[in-house]
Each structure stands twice: as C-alpha cells, then as structure tokens.
Amino acid sequence: MKYRRTLKRAKRIALERIEILMNLAEEEAKKGNWNRVKRYVSLARRIAMKVRVRFPKKWKRRICRRCNTILLYGKNARVRVKSKCYPHVVITCLECGRIYRIPMIREKKEKRKNK
Fold it and tell me: What does pTM read for this prediction?
C-alpha cells in the first residue's frame, strides 16, 4: 500500500513540476530566450519519462519533439489545413523542419452523425 501511495504522490508532484516548467518556457518563448525554452522543455520531458507519467495533452501538441522548442504558431511554427487525401492539420516547426500531421477524423464523424 505504501508503494502505491508514494508512486501516486510522485506522479502528482511530477505533473505540477511539468506544468511550472512549461509555463516558464512559454514566458521565455515570448521574450525570445530560445536556449532557456529548450532547457525547460527538455527538463519537463525528462521528468515525465522518469516518473512514467503522460505529458499533459495541452502541451503535447505544442512541443517539437526533435528540437525541444515550444511551437508558437506564426512565430516558429506554420499551421496549414489540408484536405487532399483526408482532412488533416499540418504543423511545421520552422526551427528544425519537423512536420506533424493531425487527422481531423473526429470532426468528419460528427458531420456524418448530424446529417
């Protein structure tokens, strides 16, 4: 029982630390301190991996996994909506060139239900 309690506590603390680091990284990104942003993001990701906790969803899609920067749309990331083969959003990191494709399948299913 004690092991489970300490594990739960460690995960809760880790999520708090991740949230603090990501908020700091966002503030530094707005100031333009990209080296500090990369450091904060890499620390937050390392904490999540060490404690084996899922990265919060609101931050997961705003991080480039290749260069560890926060993707600020319009500043260091490009966002395009495509619908060639299937509807999806394409996010391109302008720092390293990594491309993320996010499918919009859920919206398509909702449209079918409403018809």
Answer: 0.80
